[in-house]
Each structure stands twice: as C-alpha cells, then as structure tokens.
Amino acid sequence: MAIKYINRRPSLEDVASIGHVETKTVDPKNSAAQQLLSVYTGWISVGMVNHNGPDNTFRDQIVSFVPISPGFIETFTGENPLLGVTVAVSPASVALDESNTIFAVDGASVALERQTALPGVAGDHLFCLVLRMNVAIQQGELLRVTYQVTALWNDVEQITETPALPGSQVPIQKPLESLTADAQALHTLTRRLIADGDIAQARVAALDTIQAFRQIAATSGADVAWVANNVLILSSDLATAGLAGEAALAREAAAAITSE
Predict the structure, then answer these.
(1) Secondary-structure percent of the chain, ordered helix, strand, coil, rounded to 5
(2) In the sheet where 140-154 sits, what is the strand order?
(3) Which of 42, 91, 229, 245 gets the most CB atoms within 10 Å of its CB?
(4) pTM
(5) How are beta strands 56-65 and 2-6 bridged, if at all?
C-alpha cells in the first residue's frame, strides 16, 4: 500500500458557516474568578482528491485558524488564559468513487500558537487558537470537514478580537525546533507501543511519525540528511516489530526526502 502525504494549510477563506457563542461563568472554587466558555463551529474546505486505486491512500494534516466570524480571529497576550479545550471533527462532504471508498479523520487537536506579522495587528507575541486535524482519503474525494471547538478561558480581559484579516491568511508554520520535538516524541511513542505489544496503535503512530519527519524536511533550515536517517531508524524499528508495510513506507519516505 502506498501513502501520499500532502501539506495543506487552508486559508481563512476556506472556513465557512462560522458560528461562535460564549457565556461568562465563575470558577466553582473561587467565586471571584471570572471565566468564559466559548464554542466555535464551522466547516473547512479540504479538497483532497484520490482516484489512484484501492492501494493508495492520501493523508494530510489540516492546519487552520479558529475564527469567530469571517476574517476575524481572537488573539491573546501575556499569560496563557486557556484552561481547557475539547474538539470534535467529522468529514462533512465526500464524493464516493466506488464501493471501497475510505475516508477518515484520524485525530484533531487545538492549541494556542504564536503568530507573527498578522496583517493589521500590532505586536509579534500574539497567540491564537490553531486547529490541527489528520485526515485521509482512499478512492474518492474528501471535500469538507466540520469542527466544533469548546474552550474555557481564564481572565477574559486578555482576549482581543482582531481586525478582519485577508482571506488568504494562514497560521504560520511551527518553528523547526517544535516540529523536531513533535517528531521525536511520536517516534518514542511508536517504540513504546511496540514494546507494549500494541501493534495496532503502533501502526497509526508510525504513520504520524513519518508525516512529522516529512514536515521537518519541507521546512527551511532543516538538516535533510538527519531527517532521512531518523526515518530509516524508524523503518528498522518497524521491520523488527513485524510491520513490514509501514517499514517499507518509511524507507520510501527516506528516499523521497533525500531526493527532494
């Protein structure tokens, strides 16, 4: 089975049917502490097309802002005011090719991430909510995904609504150091799952690890030889665990990284 990794970062104009509601509350342990519960909803245009046969799967990590209205996001400064967050993501629009079409959202997360040089926004230490989700499609087209993010905030005065941003605006990429730490953590997780005998979850973690290393290789300043070597080490780990298919995918990824 061949897996193609796509690097897609939807712009604000790809986010539609945006909904945002909020309600003020208080900390049950401290009635003087004001909190804010916010819910964000919408759908994101994905446009993943794969008609390359049942043995080919396209995987992608979608990275998007979480707007409160078209072109508007919330920014934060100072101490992190986010107390907790949950996210639900689901495929919303799929064009079926054949009866063996497979599509999925493999996972999603939301975090405050630093942004720099936002158009019309002063300061370079601003943080905003960024949604990340892993999606896949085989034999068909994944057109849209829907999301619902629920966030609990502390110190609501820190939250600032930005001016309207250009529709082409996208979240900045994570720094190289952060991408490297993420990939190494996923590699460690894969090894731990293999050691624990959880082969099914190790297979999923291995695919995420390959994708993470490919993202590093595509980042300016990356040591491509180091990345390829780590992917080959991952391939060896997978082969030892009996995950021959995933080991082959890792070898293919290492070869592709060195040739790009």
Answers:
(1) 30, 45, 25
(2) 15-27, 30-50, 140-154, 82-96
(3) 42
(4) 0.70
(5) parallel
